[in-house]
Structure formats: structure tokens, C-alpha cells
Amino acid sequence: MRRMLPLAAALLAFAPVSAFAQNPYTTAAKTLFADINANLVKTAAKVPEDLYSFKPTPEVRSLGAILGHIADGNFVFCGTAAGETPQRSGFENKTGKAEIVKALNDSIAYCDKVLAELDDAKGTATVKFSGGDMAKLSVLYYNVAHCNEHYGNLVTYMRLKGIVPPSSEGR
User: Does domain 4-8+23-161 have CATH number 3.30.830.10?
Assistant: First the structure.
């Protein structure tokens, strides 16, 4: 998460003032979440179904399992921020591309709904998370870091298979 703080600071520094005038922290969370999820959705669509079972080594998750894990994480983190008692849906154990892509898209839509209902004041309310109390917006920033962490895994998997990751396209 510490790696995300400089990015958030840069985003705040270079964003139009009007966009952040009322709710700078919530706006930054929405922007960061949208940015990483654009790459995740493009990855899920771009990778052929036969590579969803690809594992660089037997000990690690498959590419599809990582995408499913991200979907599970979105539901858990955003459900926590919404004040709900989230449960993992087991998307990490799914194997079909269509099912995993749907789970990822549904989880992003759910998080977008949670973010849409927040502002900076509501985002400072605390929820139980990881054995303690944490501000709702902090849980959502943690989710952005989680998504970025696993996108990094996916980039490696794609590169090993000769696929240009979405974040590198057009360069």
C-alpha cells in the first residue's frame, strides 16, 4: 500500500482542482480503482481461454485463478467498506474464461456502487478490517493496492506467453 501513496499524491497534485474540491480522497479512490480495473478488464478479455489455466510453476495460482482472486477480493474489500459481512464467492476456483470475466466485471460494478455512495466524510467512518478498525476509504485504497499487486503477476504471465499487457500497449 505504501507504493500507492506516491501515485495518489501525484494524482492529487495534477488533477483539476474542481474535480477534487469537495471530495478529494474519494475522487482519488474512484480514479485509482477505475485505472487499475481498466487494465484488469482488458487483460481478462485479451488473454485466450487456453491460457487461463497457465501457471509459470506448479506452486502458484493460474492466470484465471488470479483474476478470480481479484474478483473475490473486490467483493470482500468493498463489502467491508460498505459495512456488510462479505464472503468469498470462490471465483478463484473457477476455470472458464466467461465465468471468470463475468465475476470480475460484477465485482468491479459492486465496488463502483460502494464508491458512488461514499464521500470524504462517510469514508472516514471506521469498519472492522484485518483485526482492527480502519476507515472505509483506507479499505478501498487497500483494495486498489491488492488489484495492482495481482495485475503485476498477470503482466509477468502475459509476458511469458508473448502477450503485451494492456498497460504497455501503444508504447
Answer: no
